[in-house]
């Protein structure tokens, strides 16, 4: 009970996390989320009626493609496009001084 209340509060407090669209059965692939797959082609073979394709969004921009099993209540896979962040110089703050090989 406490967990469901906490989850509900998070959804209302952070509505951007809850955006998404179930992709229609008649739509090819994951619609606007096809970009997250190599060659814009999602994996094949998941044809059960309880497998639901979801194009998850954040700030109205596609972020993840997820194949969700409504029978097992679990995601079968999620896909996203990784882009490396711009380097912002030395990040020595991540290194413990006791194990660093360079002088601080």
Automatic annotation (TrEMBL):
Signal peptide extent: 1-20
Transmembrane annotation, as ranges: none
Keywords: Signal
InterPro entries: DNA/RNA_non-sp_Endonuclease_sf, ENDOD1, His-Me_finger_sf
SUPFAM superfamilies: His-Me finger endonucleases (SSF54060)
Top-level lineage group: Eukaryota
This protein's name: Uncharacterized protein
PANTHER family per UniProt: ENDONUCLEASE DOMAIN-CONTAINING 1 PROTEIN, ENDONUCLEASE DOMAIN-CONTAINING 1 PROTEIN ENDOD1
